[in-house]
Amino acid sequence: MRALVVAAFVTVSAELTSADALELIGQAGVLGEWELTANLTATGGKQEFGGPIVLKHTGICSADGPETRTGEIQLQMLSASRVRATLTIDGNPCTFRATKSDAYVGMMSCRDRRDAPLRLWIK
User: Fold this and answer.
1) pLDDT tens-place string over residues 2-56
2) What is the DSSP string of 46-93?
3) Residue 75's closest CA among 41, 100, 101, 105?
4) DSSP string covering 7-21
5) pTM of the model as a whole
């Protein structure tokens, strides 16, 4: 019994310390043509994370190799099944709200383009 309690404590401790950083991977666009990656760190608020983001176009229509865009993301874990984020890509702010199914799925809304589907996995 004692070993079970110690194992449970170690598991909970590992989860709490790993909450200081998150790794995001995702897909954006109607066809999932943009690959998204980010390594986020805690930004002070409870369940709030931020850091640089990279979007890489994975479609076959680029002649000089894949187009890459960079920016920043601020992510807030509202609950175990909901997130809210602000992505700033090439200086343009976008908002994202999602609920979790197999991934956090929602629409990304930007001022300079049409809304686009976004799917995020948090590691």
Assistant:
1) 333 333 333 333 343 346 899 999 999 999 999 999 999 999 878 999 999 999 9
2) TTEEEEEEEEEE-SS--TTS--EEEEEEEEEEEETTEEEEEEEETTEE
3) 41
4) HHHHHHHHHHHHTTE
5) 0.78
CB–CB of 97/113 below 8 Å?
Answer: no
Give residue-wise pLDDT tens across range 77-101: 999 999 999 999 989 999 999 999 9
Show Cβ contacts of residue 35 under 8 Å, excluding neighbours closer than 6 positions.
25, 26, 27, 55, 56, 57, 58
> Tokens for 62?
């680029």
Please report the domains of the chain, with CATH numbers, ordered by start residue: 21-122 (2.40.128.120)
> 49-64: buried (b, 16+ CB within 10 Å) or exposed (e) per residue?
bbbebebebeeeeeee
Answer whether 22's CB lies under 8 Å from 122's CB: yes
